[in-house]
């Protein structure tokens, strides 16, 4: 699950002398930036892989070490992200995807948006093949696992954002560094909707189906360094246990998701505050935020002594990238609750969300299918398809998706059969084509 996302530049009309004038202005700004209205026509995806360097035994590919950043930068060349090569042109791959690197060396492809899942999947497959070849030339291998069962979490990126993040999460529990360094996800992004009514319906549907689809695609039972316990999705466990104020918004209580999301974002604790002054000594986290302070506190002037200035819209844009809810509003809606899938199994996830969001009728059917398990996030991560109610919801949601799939639904029907049997994703879905 990405922690490196960048938001689009804001509309300067929401600035007041470079600063946010008051909480009301900040809430209005947040709603406008996070929820862009327009006909829902596009779909995108972000795919993450764990990575390994050198010889990787087939039975234990993650027993190999993480790739050194210098080797990774050399392998990616002009496609290297600026997080590892500051002067890189950071060119997209031929299919339009951009490469990013997560703190623990996970490698991510972020697609361009496309009008259909079929085109999106074709472009991502081509870019994955190109990425795999670039890395293989420097003995780096992509590993399709949602959680690392072998290696201790180790942060490779030394940027101040991640130093501050690691320190912040370490004060809460063990899950922050595990999330940052040892997990990988399949993310799908869809448009918000043409108007507030459609936006609200799509938002509600993506949250309602969350536990059912989390269970349907859970495939990370082992994570080294996690506290003892049996979980179907150790990856999602890290997010749900990480920091409730940042990862578990009370979305079910929001009659208006735009207003609710904006209020929640401003009341979320500051994870870090960007500062231009470099660290004065090794290991210093110069971007640390005042403990317990929220963005709303910063706006109000309560942090004037600690930070020395009031925030502007660039600061708010950055704060929004440090929030990690199951569905994140980033101008579009990012679905962040699905594990990285075996092989090409991510394609069925893309197809399912395209189908469920394809029409207002499909959205309504998705909600109806998943409503009995709508709030059972922890149960879904812990038990997955072993829970009979979640298994029934998973099957019902996938059947709704199959009913609204315009093209062949062979992938979805394979997933339905698997879910009925109560088994985790595997190779039976990964080699079919959309």
What does this structure look like?
It is a single chain. With 434 residues, the protein is α+β, with helices and mostly antiparallel strands. 42% of the residues lie in helices and 9% in strands. It contains 19 helices and 7 strands. It has helices at residues 23-34, 69-76, 117-136, 160-170, 175-182, 196-208, 210-216, 234-242, 244-247, 257-267, 295-300, 304-307, 313-320, 346-356, 360-370, 377-383, 388-403, 410-421, 427-430, and strands at 43-53, 98-101, 107-110, 140-143, 185-190, 327-329, 333-339. Strands 1, 2, 3, 4, 5, 6 and 7 form a 7-stranded antiparallel beta sheet that branches. Helix 17 (388-403) runs antiparallel to helix 18. The protein is globular.
Following the backbone from N to C, one meets helices and strands in this order, namely: HEHEEHEHHEHHHHHHHHEEHHHHHH
Portion of residues in helices? 40-55%
Oligomer category: single chain
Coarse morphology: globular
In DSSP terms (H or I, runs of 4 or more residues), the helix count works out at 19
* Uncertain parts: 1-18, 279-283
**Radius of gyration in whole Å, from Cα?**
21 Å
Number of DSSP E strands:
7
Write down the overall mean pLDDT. 92
